[in-house]
Amino acid sequence: MLFRILLPLVLLSLVDIYAYQAFKTLSRDQVWIRYGYWIVSVLFLILVLYTILNFDRNSGPQNPVFKVVMASFVLLFVPKLIISLFLLTEDVTRMLVGVAGQFSGSDSETFLPSRRKFVSQIALGIAVIPFAGILYGVIKGKYNYKVVKKTLYFPDLPAAFEGFTLTQISDVHSGSFDNAEKIAYGIGLINEQKSDMIVFTGDLVNNSADEMEPWKEVFSKLKAPMGKYSILGNHDYGDYVTWPSAAAKEANMQKLYQTHKDIGFDLLRNENRLIEKDGESFRLVGVENWGTGGFVQHGDLDKATADTNANDFHILLSHDPSHFDQIVKTYPKKMSLTLSGHTHGMQFGIEIPGWIKWSPVKYRYPKWAGLYEEMGKYLYVNRGFGFLAFPGRVGIWPEITVLEFKKGETIV
Question: How many distinct structural domains can be found in the chain?
Fold first, then answer.
């Protein structure tokens, strides 16, 4: 336990000490800047220590102190880390110059050249960019909803569903919400799309069904003429908190099932629905969570498609995109489209359409956001409607996905 407490504090302190060198170099005659730097840093370390010692996993991400710590950590640590990397590069250069000077017989009295002021200026200038971006992400970015529209082509699409539209949302994480006006705006934006169907691909709550109570009324306003369907995500099972008994955990699950009904969602738990229009149909399949890397694997595609035929047109709702690579893409019954979420795009990254799409989460999930195609099957990974742990979004905005179906050859 002591090691788990000391390690993060030591790492944070080392970054603090290194980044301080830039402030020290630029504020030789302004002592207040140096004192201010350490006052903020020490107060933050005390806050981190307090959070570690008093962390309650049952309140977790929605705890106000935890939110402050997470926001402060990203806001302060990322810019300091950037500054430290700049200074580390300079120190390596200074070391090489010093060694070269010794071998060349330099008359210099000091081994290392002095730290250059302009390097510290560049480091601080660049660090301001992520600082401003993170600050925006905490204040506004987490509710900066983006509607992403895609047209998908299927060679075997039933003719009656030409032009069919589907809106996907995912990863609501209602326990993290803190602005009723913004949530109402997001729900209104979903309804403005006037899609034929709405699907929700898991993680309605962080841990407990009670988290959704304040938001049921606004989510029940979602409208779609051909139905609203949902599945469960890994957070919905209540596995990340301690329950007083197995019965209490089961009661929570039963309440969550009822919450889906109260909102108007048809919750698919390893089952499917026949979606009919003008004498034609497709199968909407929904599985429980199935993920790699220690996540629960309650999903059962065999059970969910037991009464479907291999030549049926299937659309699959599966929370974790790793299910697609591990099971779905080679499954005997073709899932023409799989809709997932789960990754949130890590709520942090850079996306410039047609140029760059990057987030650290890509090193854990190769298919982490947007549209993918493999073996003639589509996967769409929604970036999430809500947020978890870090109370913000930086570069990866909350998403409302609108998909239109067309008959034709697969195009990505």
Answer: 2
